[in-house]
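Budget justification aside, the reviewers requested a transparent look at the raw inputs and outputs of the sequence design task funded under Objective 1. We therefore reproduce one unedited record. The lines immediately below are the structure tokens for a 203-residue chain.
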């Protein structure tokens, strides 16, 4: 015959479930699963002082060697750029000299035949050589500065004397050029030495 069901709140053997002491700590099984943090656990070991010094010295030496390599590479780069610029300048000058050789040959022939040539022939030959020479120099970027009749410009002209102007409109104008000035590719090579009209006695 089947046994009657246990009353609510009791186990099958009659023990009162509600009266079970729950104040006790966790079971031994629970204790085994709980993490235990003992003193000093979870802390990385400290690097020995001598090892740290050797490591830092090695890093310092590596950085120093890298710096020296970079400095040497930059110095080589700087020297290479300077050498290439010098070579480029030399090639440009050689090209200009080559263009002037024809005028130089004409001048040599003019000098060689000067004794047998008439004054008129010498003047004409000299004018041709001068024209050829100036043409080549202008093609290379040389520009004459002959500012007669133009306003005086102290950035391009050097006043060596002054004159009273014939009219008020000519005040501060260049009246004569004593020495031609030159610019090369826009840069002033030599200012023109000029005489200037000035009512105040100064340019």
């Amino acid at each position: 015959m089947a046994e009657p069901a246990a009353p609510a709140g009791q186990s099958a053997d009659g023990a009162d479930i509600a009266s079970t002491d729950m104040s006790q700590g966790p079971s031994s099984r629970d204790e085994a699963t709980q993490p235990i943090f003992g003193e000093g656990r979870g802390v990385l070991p400290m690097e020995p002082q001598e090892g740290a010094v050797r490591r830092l010295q090695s890093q310092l030496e590596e950085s120093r060697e890298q710096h020296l390599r970079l400095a040497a590479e930059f110095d080589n780069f700087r020297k290479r750029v300077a050498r290439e610029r010098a070579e480029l300048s030399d090639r440009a000058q050689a090209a200009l000299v080559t263009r002037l050789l024809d005028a130089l040959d004409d001048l040599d022939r003019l000098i060689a035949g000067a004794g047998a040539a008439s004054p008129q022939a010498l003047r004409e030959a000299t004018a041709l050589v001068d024209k050829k020479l100036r043409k080549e120099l202008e093609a290379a970027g040389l520009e004459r500065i002959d500012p007669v009749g133009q306003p005086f410009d102290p950035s391009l002209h050097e006043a060596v004397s002054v004159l009273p102007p014939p009219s008020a409109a000519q005040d501060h104008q260049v009246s004569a050029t004593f020495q031609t000035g030159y610019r090369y590719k826009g840069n002033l090579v030599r200012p023109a030495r000029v005489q200037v009209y000035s009512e105040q006695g100064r340019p």
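The beta strands are 142-145, 157-163, 174-179, 181-184, 187-190, 192-197. The longest helix spans residues 49-112. Computational costs for records of this kind are itemized in the attached budget.
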